[in-house]
Amino acid sequence: MVSSTNPKFKQLRVAVVGGGLGGLSAAVALRRAGHLVEIYERRDFNVEVGASISCAANGTQWLREWDVDIPDMKPVILMKLVMRDWETGKILNQYNLDHYEEEWGNVYNMLHRQDMHATLLKAATSSEDKGTPCSVKIDHICESVDPEAGTVTFKNGVTVKADLIIGADGIRSVVRGQIGVVPDMTSAPQTCYRLNVKKSVVDELGLVKYSYDPAIQFWGGIQGKNGRSKYYKIVMSPCSDGEIVSFYCFMPTELTKHHEEGFVFEEVPVSDVIAGKYDELDPDCVNLLKNSVDRMPWRLYVHQPYDRWFKGNTCILGDAAHPMMPHQSQGACQAIEDAAALGIIFSEKYNFTTDVTAGLAMYQTIRKPRATRVQSASARATENLNERIGFTSLTPHDASLAAAEGKLTINEMNSYKMHSHVASEVEKLGAGLGPTIAVM
Ligand SMILES: Cc1cc2nc3c(=O)[nH]c(=O)nc-3n(C[C@H](O)[C@H](O)[C@H](O)COP(=O)(O)OP(=O)(O)OC[C@H]3O[C@@H](n4cnc5c(N)ncnc54)[C@H](O)[C@@H]3O)c2cc1C
Fold it and tell me: Ligand 1 centroid to 323 CA: how many Å?
């Protein structure tokens, strides 16, 4: 049992289905809030792919609040967004982030996914940190959930009972179907290849050193000359203490040779990436791509927002709840925000531990509108790079115009206060509404 200053606080048994970045974040947040968490992962724990992930201030904020060892994730701190010409590499536009931390209170970290995953797993399971260490069960493929009875059944025949079930099982979520959501989705008109170039290779071969600048750099993403589609786009950023330069290379889906579903573990030849209008790409960038490793395709899907995120004592989180195109670099940050909301709602500050379903209704109220805004802004940024957070805020004047047009701005992402949002929504429930929920 946990000791709490709230006599109504009840320690919950939490089952997290899926041990990706979202599931691990939820595990850490709920462990910190005083609950007993079990994580069920279908594979072993080498689940993350070898590519970069940007964690903007709105994600970093929660990693700090949970006391996660961020330096252990070997971050590179972002200082610039740079837009380059597809054919020449000439800088077209730049957004300087020198004052980012000063302005938003947290840095923008560029991480390697495997480093981020490993550190979150440590934070979830370490016996030294606050809260009971989470336990982890691998080779548990979720087959069904009963959201009313609070049970999860796995393909290996095991059934577990929990007070709160979290479906963090990604874009092809099984849990989502079990709460009655049928996704309205289409295959995206754009496909991605991810690949990495080692910094040592850049140095040895005399490739362009600006590739490992602490920046996210883009080529393309806008309609180009000779009918070049806006779906040709490259995103480059360093990670892993600057030792790896990571690339996401996009192209129109009809050009890709890779239409298979699911993960593809075989490295693809560089010729599969340098296809179509890649023959017009900046030669410095082509040289980087030619010296890459870990080249893998990544199919993309466009999902319309779901009408619900919970049923009974079961909710969905991360890509299971709001899969989005990658063009705002916010998918994982939004999963971290989901986890943070659950940690706050089921903390001893409120009485939702006595009524988990009411707590999940609050979770949906807090998280669905914001995540849906990011999801649709990510779809818009697929069509127009100027819709990307950062480029919508090149000057304060632009930022207010962008906000007035409904575009997503850095201000909206980073000045959001989730603690006060939850407090004000709980207050609205008022006496007699919902369960006996009161702010202490
Ligand atoms: C090209 C690209 C670039 C991106 N860049 C960024 C970025 O820079 N910044 C950012 O914030 N986001 C980014 N994202 C988004 C981010 O990768 C995802 O939003 C995030 O990884 C989702 O995490 P998740 O834990 O919800 O899902 P997943 O990572 O998919 O994890 C789901 C987990 O559940 C497990 N699982 C699945 N089914 C079952 C089952 N039946 N039973 C048990 N376990 C199961 C899986 O094995 C996996 O471990 C990017 C996405 C793409 C495609």
Answer: 9
Q: Are strands 36-40 and 135-137 parallel, antiparallel or unpaired?
A: parallel
Please state, in angstroms and rounded to a whole number, the distance separating the CA atoms of residues 346 and 163: 12
- Nearest by Cα to 14 from 32, 45, 334: 32
The per-residue pLDDT string of the chain (440 residues; one tens digit each, 9 = 90 and over) reads 566 789 999 999 999 999 999 999 999 999 999 999 999 999 887 767 889 999 999 999 999 999 999 999 999 999 999 999 999 999 998 989 999 999 999 999 999 999 999 999 999 999 998 999 999 999 999 999 999 999 999 999 999 999 999 999 999 999 999 999 999 999 999 999 999 999 999 999 999 999 999 999 999 998 888 899 999 999 999 999 999 999 999 999 998 887 765 555 678 999 999 999 999 999 999 999 999 999 999 999 999 999 999 999 999 999 999 999 999 999 999 999 999 999 999 999 999 999 999 999 999 999 999 999 999 999 999 988 888 887 777 666 777 777 777 889 999 999 999 999 999 999 998 754 445 555 44
Rounded to the nearest angstrom, the distance between the alpha carbon of 432 and the centre of ligand 1 is 39
| Residue closest by Cα to atom 24 of ligand 1 | 22
Placement of tokens 């298979």 in the chain:
260
The secondary structure of residue 12, as a DSSP letter, is P
CB atoms within 10 A of CB 382: 23
- Residue 361 backbone dihedrals phi, psi, to 5 degrees: -65, -40
- Tokens at residue 355, please? 């009524």
Q: What is the pTM of this model?
A: 0.95
Query: Which of 331, 353, 330 lies closest to 342, judged by CA?
Result: 353
Mention every residue, 6+ apart, whose C-beta is less than 8 A from residue 104.
57, 410, 414, 415
- Which atom of ligand 1 is the closest one to the Cα of 47? 49
C-alpha closest to that of 96 among 83, 108, 82: 82
Alpha-carbon distance 254 to 267, whole Å?
20
